[in-house]
Amino acid sequence: MNINIDLNKPLWQLTVGEFLELINQSPVVTVDNTPKEKRLVYGIAGIAQIFNCSMTTANRIKSSGKINQAISQTGRMIVVDADLALELMKK
User: Fold this and answer.
1) How far is the CA of 11 from the CAs of 6, 15, 18, 39, in angstroms?
2) How far apart are CA 69 and CA 84, in angstroms?
3) pLDDT tens profile 45-78
4) Strand partners, 73
5) Is residue 65 part of a domain?
């Protein structure tokens, strides 16, 4: 189904047949706009769980500042976006 359409021809001047052939040749693109649910972990134990390390190493990771963008801390309550933390450590 190779179609020869003049590329300078306005879209509104295409015949129905030309239009249908053009649509059938174009790739179908689907976009998934559903927001991805954040995977949250809590506290130093949560950081240790993400990186599969000891609590001491998790404390060092938090203190290093590498994952600060993934951490939300209010008082002693620590909430970590696990996926963002993993991404930040890859850099």
Assistant:
1) 10, 9, 10, 46
2) 8
3) 999 999 999 999 999 999 999 999 999 999 999 9
4) 78
5) yes
- β partners of residue 78: 73
Please indicate, yes or no, if residue 81 is contained in any of the structural domains: yes
* Domain contains 67: yes
Number of structural domains, the chain?
1
* DSSP secondary structure string for all residues of 48-73: HHHHT--HHHHHHHHHHTTTGGGEEE
pTM of this prediction exceeds 0.90: no
Residue that the structure tokens 């990186």 belong to: 51
Nearest of 61, 40, 63 to residue 52 by alpha carbon:
61
